[in-house]
């Protein structure tokens, strides 16, 4: 069975450390951990709500990664008719890794990078659960 | 609630302070209901601190004097010990916060309340608290420098 | 009642992850906010415009904005215009000579050339911030007001308390039509508290304060001034 890649949509929020963690975590997933199963989708492209954005989301399943409870990534994907298979909140990952209190927005500190990796590992497991028994385009 | 609240806007941030509440300068609000005082974190304090990952409130039966820690919160920015603005004994804690500390961010004056204290000297406690207008004036300066 | 807000500039970076230019926009915006102009700027999250960040939307309606985009798609500039108001300045990083020469690294990790471009873009943004804070700026059209610039008041978007900013608006009749002036009640309050009377000598100063937050076409300035002074007199009278 052939299947579309899972879309990874981080919020990349610019105001908080957790926004940068979503960004870094998304890079780790799409470039290091699951390069063949996932595709990174910039949220900025979706914000305009144009046909190209809708086409990107059409028929694919997405994992939205958000840095705060406003959940911009999940909301935007949903509003454009995309399927949010999983919505991941960095604060929830942090609760499971309390020792990794991150800092930095332009550049994450070591804890931030570790938290991004922990996030990426969780997303990788979600991707695996979504793609079992499939091969990727 | 907005009509009965004072709003402070700093840049892209807005903070609401219900007029019927009293506030400590540490950002704890107090609502007195008979001999009991409900305590929570002000809108400004919760926004300044960021998403709350952990909240731990002292157990029922804990005796408090003004200034004693009655709760601890942890966010990505801070680990903060919250000083009690009143004296008395804790008679109820918000159990929902154990599973969902984010309630403090989502509804600081509602479901995100922290604890209920049976107060023993409200007259004295009240003298050290601010009304919404004075608290709003206090936090405006803080917000200008601390909130980004 | 909220105090008269300090005028600042909002910076909206596209933060696109795919291209190094997207990362340049993000790091340049943060450099301006954290180091170059920390007291004059606010960063605004682009996705929040769509996801309902009332504070971000309200800020961008009231203050001038600079959109910084990585590529010609100009997501930040167009998104800002779509959800708030036209940016006063729109910068496309990919247009710069340095970007065109390549070698910026990747979205994830910029090269030394990429970091140089961050500094260059940040400096460019900071210069625009300085210009905007010294110009009379039209938040509706995203343009600086000049003598040749005409205003189409019929297209005016009103910023009101309900926009989320909490900043009050007062409507006046100027030259036979209604105009909404942002922050007018706050300006009146401040003038009254400073002991300034509603007399002709106060008029110029009053108009200058109003122009910080509102576009006033040059050719109509006298008419605006008369109505603003009249409204200030009524304001003072109403308060004894």
How does this model look, in words?
The complex is a heterotrimer of chains A (137), B (148) and C (240). Chain A is an alpha/beta fold and 137 residues long. In chain A, 48% of the residues lie in helices and 18% in strands. Chain A has one domain (2-126). Chain A has six helices and six strands; from the N terminus they run ββαβααβαβααβ. In chain A, the strands form two sheets. In chain A, strands 3-2-4-5 form a four-stranded parallel beta sheet, with helices on both faces. In chain A, strands 1-6 form a two-stranded parallel ribbon. Chain A is globular, with a radius of gyration of 14 Å. Chain B is of the alpha+beta class and 148 residues long. Chain B has one domain (2-141): Beta Barrel (OB fold (Dihydrolipoamide Acetyltransferase, E2P)). Chain B is 24% helix and 39% strand. Chain B has five helices and eleven strands. Chain B has helices at residues 43-49, 96-99, 103-106, 122-127, 132-146; strands at 5-10, 13-18, 22-23, 28-33, 36-41, 52-57, 63-64, 69-75, 79-83, 88-93, 115-119. A six-stranded antiparallel beta sheet of chain B has the order 3-4-5-11-10-7. In chain B, strand 8 and strand 9 (79-83) form a beta hairpin. The longest helix of chain B is centred in the last third of the chain and has 15 residues, at 132-146. The model of chain B has no long low-confidence stretch (mean pLDDT 92). Helices cover 46% and strands 14% of the residues of chain C. Chain C is built from nine helices and eight strands. Chain C is elongated and about 65 Å long. Mean pLDDT of chain C is 82; it is low at 146-165. Chain C is α/β, with parallel strands linked by helices and 240 residues long. A four-stranded parallel beta sheet of chain C has the order 2-1-3-4, with helices on both faces. In chain C, strands 5-6 form a two-stranded antiparallel sheet. Chain C folds into two domains: 9-144, no CATH class; 168-238. Chain A binds chain C through residues 10-15, 19, 23-24, 26-27, 31, 40, 42-45, 47-49, 70-73, 75-76, 79, 105-106, and chain C through 13-18, 22, 26-27, 29-31, 34, 43, 45-53, 73, 75-76, 78-79, 82, 107-108.
């Amino acid at each position: 069975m052939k299947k579309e890649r899972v879309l990874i949509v981080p919020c990349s929020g610019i105001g908080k450390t957790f926004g940068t963690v979503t960004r870094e975590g998304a890079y780790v997933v799409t470039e290091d951990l699951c390069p063949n199963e996932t595709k990174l989708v910039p949220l900025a492209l979706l914000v305009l709500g144009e046909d190209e954005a809708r086409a990107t989301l059409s028929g694919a399943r997405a994992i939205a990664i958000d840095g705060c409870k406003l959940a911009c990534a999940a909301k935007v994907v949903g509003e454009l008719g995309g399927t949010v298979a999983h919505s991941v909140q960095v604060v929830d990952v942090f609760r499971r890794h309390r020792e990794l209190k991150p800092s930095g927005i332009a550049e994450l500190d070591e804890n931030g990078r570790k938290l991004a990796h922990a996030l990426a590992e969780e997303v990788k497991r979600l991707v695996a659960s979504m793609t079992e028994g499939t091969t990727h385009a | 609630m907005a009509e009965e609240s004072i709003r402070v806007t700093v840049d892209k941030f807005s903070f609401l302070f219900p007029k019927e509440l009293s506030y400590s300068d540490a950002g704890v609000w107090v609502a007195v209901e008979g001999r009991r005082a409900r305590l929570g974190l002000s809108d400004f304090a919760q926004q300044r601190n960021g998403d709350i990952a952990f909240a731990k409130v002292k157990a029922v039966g804990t005796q408090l004097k003004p200034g004693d820690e009655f709760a601890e919160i942890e966010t990505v920015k801070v680990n903060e010990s919250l000083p009690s603005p009143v004296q008395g004994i804790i008679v109820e804690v918000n159990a929902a916060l154990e599973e969902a500390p984010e309630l403090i961010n989502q509804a600081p004056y509602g479901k995100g309340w922290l604890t209920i204290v049976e107060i023993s000297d409200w007259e004295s406690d009240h003298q050290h608290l601010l009304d919404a207008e004075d608290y709003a004036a206090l936090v405006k300066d803080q917000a200008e420098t601390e909130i980004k | 009642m909220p105090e008269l807000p300090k005028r600042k500039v909002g910076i909206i970076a596209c933060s696109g992850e795919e291209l190094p230019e997207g990362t340049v926009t993000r790091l340049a915006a943060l450099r301006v906010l954290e180091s170059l102009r920390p007291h004059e700027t606010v960063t605004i999250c682009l996705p929040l415009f769509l996801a309902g960040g009332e504070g971000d939307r309200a800020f961008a309606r009231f203050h001038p904005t600079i959109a910084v985009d990585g590529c010609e798609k100009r997501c930040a500039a167009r998104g800002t215009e779509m959800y708030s108001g036209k940016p006063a300045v729109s910068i496309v990083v990919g247009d710069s000579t340095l970007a065109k020469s390549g070698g910026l690294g990747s979205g994830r990790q910029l090269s030394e050339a990429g970091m140089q471009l961050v500094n260059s873009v940040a400096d460019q943004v900071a210069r625009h911030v300085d210009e905007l804070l010294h110009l009379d700026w039209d938040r509706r059209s995203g343009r600086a007001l000049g003598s040749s610039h005409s205003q189409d008041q019929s297209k005016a978007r009103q910023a009101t308390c309900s926009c989320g900013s909490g900043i009050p608006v007062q409507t006046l009749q100027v030259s036979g039509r209604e105009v909404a002036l942002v922050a007018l009640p706050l300006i009146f309050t401040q003038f009254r508290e400073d002991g300034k009377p509603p007399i002709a000598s106060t008029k110029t100063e009053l108009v200058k304060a109003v122009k910080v937050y509102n576009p006033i076409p040059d050719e109509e300035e006298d008419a605006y001034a008369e109505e603003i002074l009249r409204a200030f007199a009524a304001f003072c009278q109403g308060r004894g």
